[in-house]
Design brief:
Order of helices and strands: HEHHHHHHHEHHHHHHH
Largest sheet: 2 strands, antiparallel
Radius of gyration: 23 Å
Oligomer: single chain
Number of helices: 15
Number of strands: 2
Helix content: 55-70%
Strand content: under 5%
Strand order of the largest sheet: 1-2
Length: 322
């Protein structure tokens, strides 16, 4: 029993001792900071956003539409009232900006996680998958050296020698690997859940996207598809089949690094389509923020080797430009 525990501990120690370039985690930090600003800034600086906050996240006695369950965090500051919720959102926005520029290490991440959670968790009826994924991203950022490079912290740290925004010194790899695993879990589990709907399967002709893009609940331009006529059903069926196959099989990128660029290209296309044609909150933005965590130096090297194989002929000779 003791030798097995020792071996398990040694494997864990070896796994968490691996180091790599700090760039992917820094890009993840910047992406999450931008996602936080994408969510918070419209709530503060637009008339509609302020009305949404006052209507959905404020207690009924202070102008909201319903009595809220409340939370100990909001109660600590005086309850779900505008004088509490709006300052918390301003703090979240400031922390998002500090994350983007990389100042004060992980402190802005911690403050943003707490302030955003208190402000936007008063009414779970208006929360979504994007909010949950943002919370997970903030937790993952707390685990790594996120301002080691591409940050004001890096420039301040190197000020006595040659000030630079970039420091290639390696950092622990496991926080980035956890974030990549989180993305795989999100996509694969979402794809499996979709299979309970016939519209995502051949039994209904892969009709899901054709239906969704005509729904006023999700689509930005619900009349465009219907007005264009039924000829769009076939291309949207093909896109539906591609999307569900991509989601369900996304877990393979955990074991096959060379496939990550191909899966990422499809994912970027999927999320750009969602941003343009659908209203799903910040889900696409925060999902794309995870994409740098799929790529380490080893992953990029494996992808280059895979491209090299595709360019080789059956005899093993490599095609050279003429």
């Amino acid at each position: 029993m003791i030798p097995r525990l020792r071996q398990a501990f040694e494997r864990l120690a070896a796994l968490t001792s691996r180091t790599e370039s700090p760039v992917p985690l820094a890009l993840f930090r910047i992406g999450v900071g931008c996602s936080l600003l994408w969510l918070i800034v419209p709530l503060l600086l637009t008339r509609v956003g302020r009305d949404v906050v006052g209507f959905a996240f404020v207690e009924r006695s202070s102008g909201g539409y319903r009595n809220l369950a409340g939370s100990w965090g909001a109660d600590l500051f005086g309850g779900a009232i505008p004088e509490v919720i709006f300052p918390l959102l301003w703090i979240s926005a400031l922390c998002g900006l500090l994350m983007v520029v990389g100042l004060f290490g992980r402190l802005p991440v911690l403050v943003a996680a707490v302030a955003t959670r208190i402000a936007l968790s008063q009414n779970m009826d208006v929360s979504g998958a994007g909010d949950a994924l943002l919370g997970n991203a903030l937790l993952l950022l707390l685990l790594g050296d996120i301002t080691a490079t591409l940050s004001l912290d890096c420039r301040w740290r190197t000020r006595h020698h040659q000030p630079s925004w970039i420091d290639p010194s390696p950092i622990a790899a496991w926080p980035r690997q956890l974030a990549a695993a989180q993305l795989c879990i999100v996509y694969t589990s979402t794809g499996v859940q979709k299979l309970v709907s016939m519209a995502w399967t051949p039994f209904d002709g892969f009709s899901a996207l054709y239906q969704i893009l005509q729904s006023p609940h999700w689509a930005r331009f619900p009349h465009l598809i219907g007005d264009a006529g039924g000829w769009l059903a076939i291309p949207f069926s093909l896109l539906t089949a591609l999307t569900i196959t991509w989601e369900v099989s996304f877990v393979v990128v955990l074991f096959k690094r060379s496939l990550r660029p191909a899966f990422a290209v499809v994912g970027i296309g999927v999320h750009l389509g969602i941003l343009i044609f659908m209203e799903v909150g910040i889900f696409s933005v925060i999902s794309l923020a995870f994409y740098p965590t799929l790529f380490s130096q080893q992953t990029l090297a494996a992808a280059r080797r895979q491209v090299g194989r595709f360019r080789s002929d059956p005899a093993g000779r490599t095609h050279r430009p003429t």
